[in-house]
Design goal:
CATH architecture: Beta Barrel
Shape: globular
Low-confidence stretches: none
Radius of gyration: 14 Å
Structural class: mainly beta
CATH topology: Barwin-like endoglucanases
Mean pLDDT: 96
Order of helices and strands: EEEHEEEEHE
Largest sheet: 8 strands, mixed
Number of helices: 2
Number of strands: 8
Helix content: 10-25%
Oligomer: single chain
CATH class: Mainly Beta
Length: 116
């Protein structure tokens, strides 16, 4: 049996942009994507801590070290700059593998950069 579990999580990043005139997606600082093991085009669930919105889109890389978190297209209506988000991806695996799997968890600082 296959089950779906959390593969990666970027916890408490701040929205830095909202671009209605882009064709969808979420732009994420590529350093954060790498740390969380999120790949270009991967489906991402977004939870907005400020307004309770939950949505799904796909990830595209933003400039490294920029701290960029930009919601693009229609999703831009669901956020305001400065909102705090949790970003999650999921993977399917069999139950036995899931018991020992460790997700990639990232806890950025206030500027959306990795802690060193």
């Amino acid at each position: 049996m296959q089950i779906q579990i959390v593969k990666s999580k970027i916890h408490r990043v701040k929205v830095t942009g909202a671009d209605l005139n882009y064709i969808g997606s979420i732009t994420i600082d590529e350093d954060l994507m790498d740390a969380a093991n999120i790949i270009h085009g991967e489906k991402v669930q977004i939870v907005n801590n400020n307004n309770g919105e939950r949505l799904e889109t796909y990830a595209i890389p933003g400039p490294r070290g920029s701290g960029e978190i930009t919601l693009n297209g229609a999703a831009a209506h669901k956020v305001s700059i400065g909102d705090v988000l949790i970003l999650m991806t999921y993977a399917f695996m069999d139950s036995e593998e899931a018991k020992t799997f460790s997700p990639s968890l990232v806890f950025p600082n206030e500027e959306n950069n990795l802690l060193t």
